[in-house]
Amino acid sequence: xxxxxxxxxxxxxxxxxxFRSNVTPPPRPRATPSQIAGRTLIGLTIIAGFIGxxxxxxxxxxxxxxxxxxxxxxEASDGR
Length: 80
Fold this sequence. Notes:
Strand content: under 5%
Helix content: 40-55%
Keywords: Membrane, Transmembrane, Transmembrane helix
């Protein structure tokens, strides 16, 4: 078997990692104070949700407060 050595129409795709542009992109616009405050509030809300779920979830996962074996009295055996 031999390989054909003819040019591939999409050979530029293989060379894309070596391509460097001389055009610099425009700088990103700075965030306004309201955008920063909004992002901060969203972050704090998410963190507060995680903390709240831990506060309400940890007592439910505590194995000491809920014994696994409960003694149940049969309801039909009242001595008659």
